[in-house]
């Protein structure tokens, strides 16, 4: 994208304590709001791509058990989006449990669907699947 920035690892101790991910924060202090939006992209597509590339590059030549998971953060985007995803997931769980009917969650990236699928694996009595084709693919939460 032709942009240069430093990457910092500090400031995410409370977030990373709950997960196995290492957070890499892009220093956005020299970016315009347009450049930040370009790096995040529509529905987070660009930052997801950057994150995928970072994970691939940083785990090259590592055995599977030595690989790390990296989350790319920019201007609070991931923290805010994770809060939104947590709310969407909690609402879907509550709705499925109260109605017994499945609930669709549209508009998620593949990385976000994977994140929610992982969260739902721990919820007894519920399951999830992805349905449809990109870009209209949806996550479905349903009773088991």
Q: Quick gist of this model?
A:
With 144 residues, this protein is an alpha+beta fold. The chain is built from five helices and six strands; from the N terminus they run E-H-E-H-H-E-H-E-H-E-E.
Describe the protein's architecture and organization.
The protein is of the alpha+beta class and 144 residues long. The chain folds into two domains: 69 residues, no CATH class; 63 residues, Ribosomal Protein S8, Chain: A, domain 1, CATH 3.30.1370.50. Helix content is 42%, strand content 20%. The protein contains five helices and six strands. The strands form two sheets. A three-stranded mixed beta sheet has the order 1-2-3. It has a three-stranded antiparallel beta sheet with strand order 4-6-5, with helices on one face. The N and C termini lie far apart (44 Å).
Largest sheet: 3 strands, mixed
Widest beta sheet: strand line-up: 1-2-3
Share of residues in helices: 40-55%
- N-to-C order of helices and strands: EHEHHEHEHEE
Give the assembly state of these chains: single chain
Radius of gyration: 17 Å
Q: What's the pLDDT, averaged over the residues?
A: 90
Could you tell me the strand content as a percent range? 15-25%
Unreliable stretches (pLDDT < 50, length at least 5) are: none
Question: What number of domains?
Answer: 2
- The count of DSSP E runs of length 2 or more, i.e. the number of strands, is 6
Cα shape: globular
The N- to C-terminal Cα distance equals 44 Å
Q: Which structural category fits the helices and strands?
A: alpha+beta
Put simply, the count of helices is 5
